Amino acid sequence: MGLIIDEIWKADTIVVLLLVGIGLYCLLSKGNMIKMIIGIEIMAKGVMLNFVMSGYLQNNTGLAQALVITVIVIDVVIVALALSLIVNAYKHYGTLKINSLTRLRG
Amino acid sequence: MILPYSYILAIVTPIIGAALIPYIGKPDSKIRVWFAVLCGFLTAFFTLLLIPNITEKPVTFEWIPGLITYTFSLDAISVFMAIIAGTIGSLVVLFSVKYMEGQEGLPRYYALTLLFIGAMIGLVLTDNLLILYFFWELVGLCSYALIGFYYKDPKAARAGMKAFLTTRVGDVFLLVGILTLYWATNTFSIRDIMGAASTIPADKLSLAAFCFIIGAIGKSAQVPLHVWLPDAMEAPTTISALIHAATMVNAGIYLIARMYPLFHNVGGWLDAIMWIGVITALLAAVMAVVEPDIKRVLAYSTVSQLGFMMFALGVGGYFASQFHLMSHAIFKALLFLCAGAVIHEVGTRNMYEIDGSARSMKITRTTFLIGVFALSGIPIFNGFWSKDMVLASAYTHAGDAASAYGYADIGFYMAYLPLIIIVIAAAFTVAYSFKAYWLVFGKRKEQKKYVHEAPSCMTAPLLILCFASVVSWLSVGYFSRLIIDYNPMVHIEEMNVLELVTETFTSIPILLTLIAICLGLTAFVYRKEIARAMLTRYRVIYDFVKIGFGFDGLYLWIVRRILSLGRIFVHHVEGIFDKFNYGVAYGSKRFSASFRRTHTGNLNVNLFGIVLGVLIMLVILLYVK
């Protein structure tokens, strides 16, 4: 049993790190607003997976699942809000590039 | 005690009224104006209620219990000054209803007027020198704002500034005096300071004493700080009446009278006051003779009469000065309000332009004539009794001072010199006041134009004040009794009306009064000859008087020198400070500019910064336990 848990834990950690890494890379490298939202979402999924895993490890799956479901719902809201902002920004500026929104010239 | 705390109400009513005025009624509404009148009369009522509350002891009132205690001084002279400020102030406010009708900025006018009255009452009723100084400044501030009431007229704005700055010279010295007394006795309470008078070192006491004189001559417009008062005539006439009769200028006399028991033993103090008073009385009376503007004539007359009061204090006539102050407050308010009525109806202040056309204003004419009688000291009017009292104390003082010398000694004649000058000043008083009456109301061969009498709410205060000018001297017995009972630190003789009458008419000083009146009337009768001589042969003297003995020119010269000194200072010294400041400014600007490159505004770069920060924190958390 212990061995299996160990294996699962290791695999899960790798997946989580992968997801968060992909999300971060996406955020850092992409200039497109839609792609940045996707990056954020990927990161968020990694975090959720981490939650489920830690709940399982502590024998508290119920709490972890409840939290994750809440996070999913909030995530949806964030995506909806972000997309609506992006649509408006697009209408206003005619582009999806995040850097074209910069007004401040340092 | 008819009404407890009426001393607080007397101070608070006008001040609260002043604060409420802007919020009452619509702009230009009648309600606001009559509210101001109501506040004024309530104040007068409360000050009159103080009479049965007069007490020798200080009255304390816990403003914030345990923290701030306000000590009132409710003795005879305080209450007496408060009554003058309250009653004459209320009559002035009533007079303003018609006089100021339709003017711009009425809320400001009424609020400041009430505040002015409240500040004056606060000044005279407090026992604490620091609070006295606070109200002293408040009175100065109100006078500044009201003298410059027509602020769109640059002349008025400048006059307000001049009054403020000139009195400021005195105020600084007053503050020095107050702090010196505090330094010596560790208390601000006038009563405690007087109690500890014997412990004050002589040098500090005389420093404080002379500082108080300078404070008083600034406020009471004595030579050489009198220059602001004639210019203050740019104010509305009602304000002039208030400043001259009820509030501002009496503060200086009050201060000297209040500190008199403490300072009168300081060497030279009384002599200084006497000489300031006598010189002021003469110079101002002379300047009043050549002045064509009716308000400025009255202003110089006030300066001169204040000189009489100072002089009376200086020669030891404590009661005479207070008595003259009361008479003067009444008849000067009367004269100013009459002048206001004339200016309101005729529309000019120049007496040569009025030229008798106000003769058809019967009530104003009669009351002005009575005011002139009182001012020039014609028997049975209140000015006669008080001025005679001043001359009597001067006569006694001169006799005492001269008795130390023989007849051949120069000191003998020096001792009589102030007396002679003051009689000449009284003669000039008669001359200019009759001249003013004749120019404004005198009979001409043909009446050029018909002028209406002023409305009744203007003539009512005139009639009240006129009545008071005739009868106020009857209060002499009561008034002197109150001072004896409640101001034990000053020593005066009690007088009742009968004694006053018999003593006045049987002693030598009555001759001095009569000489002054005769001289003045002679000068008035021969005015044409005198004027011709002055304009031709003695042109130099005339011109010198006309420019006000050159005081204004002198001050202008001094101010110009100071300004040019300041410019030199700016030129040479300010540059050094500037360089330092500019150096700091440029340095920080350049230092910040070096960070400019890091602020790209690129979101990815910012995010990278965030991630880097998180990583660094993780590393720290890992390795630093």
Describe the structure.
By secondary structure, chain A is an all-alpha fold. Chain A has helices spanning 2-29, 33-57, 61-93. In chain A, helix 1 packs antiparallel against helix 2 and helix 2 runs antiparallel to helix 3 (61-93). The model of chain A has no long low-confidence stretch (mean pLDDT 87). Chain B is mainly alpha-helical. Chain B contains 26 helices and two strands. Chain B has a two-stranded antiparallel sheet.
Notable traits:
heterodimer; A: 106 residues; mainly alpha; B: 625 residues; two-stranded antiparallel sheet; 26 helices; 2 strands; 74% helix
Can I get a quick summary?
The complex is a heterodimer of chains A (106) and B (625). Chain A is mainly alpha-helical and 106 residues long.
Helix content of chain B: over 70%
**Count of helical stretches of chain B:** 26
Radius of gyration of chain B (Å): 29 Å
| Sheet with most strands of chain B | 2 strands, antiparallel
Strand fraction of chain B: under 5%
What characteristic shape of chain A results from the CA principal axes? elongated
Total helices of chain A: the number is: 3
Poorly predicted spans of chain B: none
Beta strands of chain A, count: 0
Give the low-pLDDT segments of chain A: none
Outline the secondary-structure elements:
The complex is a heterodimer of chains A (106) and B (625).
Chain A: H1 2-29, H2 33-57, H3 61-93
Helix pairs in contact in A: 1-2, 2-3
Chain B: H1 6-20, H2 30-49, E1 58-64, E2 68-73, H3 76-99, H4 106-125, H5 129-147, H6 154-185, H7 190-195, H8 202-219, H9 228-231, H10 237-246, H11 248-263, H12 269-289, H13 294-314, H14 318-346, H15 351-354, H16 362-376, H17 382-402, H18 410-441, H19 456-471, H20 476-486, H21 497-506, H22 509-525, H23 527-536, H24 539-546, H25 551-593, H26 603-623
Antiparallel strand pairs in B: 1-2
